[in-house]
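Troubleshooting log. The previous structure file for this entry was overwritten by mistake, so regenerating from the original sequence record. Sequence copied from the archived sheet and checked twice against the printout by T.R.
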Amino acid sequence: MDARMTTDPMIESPQTEPQASSELDVKPETPEETKPAKQVRMPDPKLDPNSPNVFEVRDLNLYYEKFHALKNVTIDIPKNHVTAFIGPSGCGKSTLLRCFNRMNDLIDGVRIDGSITMEGQDIHSKDLDVVNLRTEVGMVFQAPNPFPMSIFDNVAYGLRCQGIRDMKKLRVVVEDSLRKAALWEEAKDHLHRNALKLSGGQQQRLCIARAIALEPKVILMDEPTSALDPIATAHIEDLIEELKKLYTIIIVTHSMNQAARISDKTAFFLLGDLVEVGDTSEVFHVPRDKRTEDYISGKFG
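Regenerated output below.
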């Protein structure tokens, strides 16, 4: 894992007012240490660093105290693909998404058994730095959550947390990240504008740029367009198609049409079970399981 990161990028938005000289004087806060979820470790699987998969999940079970939220889930997440998780509310898809960067560690009463490896390394290993994991596995949440500071400072925030103060480097990374997030042309003349003044779709693209700035390998997206209008949604979907050339993307969505449009692989979850996973075209047109067919056709959910 990359040891560059010294402050967890998954922290809450800092509650500070934008400064007049926002590009220069941001002092990020360091979050308190979080207590990891209790782990019931299984024997390590055979590790293959040359695997075409960025994640390999084997026999994963997750409990919220006594509630069994994920049941014996086994799934591979291929590199540089878009994998969509679909299913009705409460089926476990967002819970699994949060497993990949160990965000479930922040929830009291969580217990996990089974294994998840990232490029051959067990992400629950005692030797693994969770902060570095969350640097390599960025996350974009359901509602846009820009920090209350300038556009520039939002994108540069994680780098400054790493101790980078070289303004030349920060400017290069900010521009590159905004370009990759398809926001540069709209924002280049307003980099010191408060990010909260952007539209909802622009704010979500800014959050993607903020994640990209840390050079992750994987971007997790938890219903990233559910709060956006159709035009903004189309912008995000077009962006995802471009981003998969550089990153592995896992997206949770309630929209069957969205999953069919943008994903290469689709996994259907129901009541904590992974019912079916495969190429998106096959899952939608020739599903193997009757429950998948019923859900996609709208008979329930």
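The chain is about 30% helix and 25% strand. Archived copy saved in two places this time.
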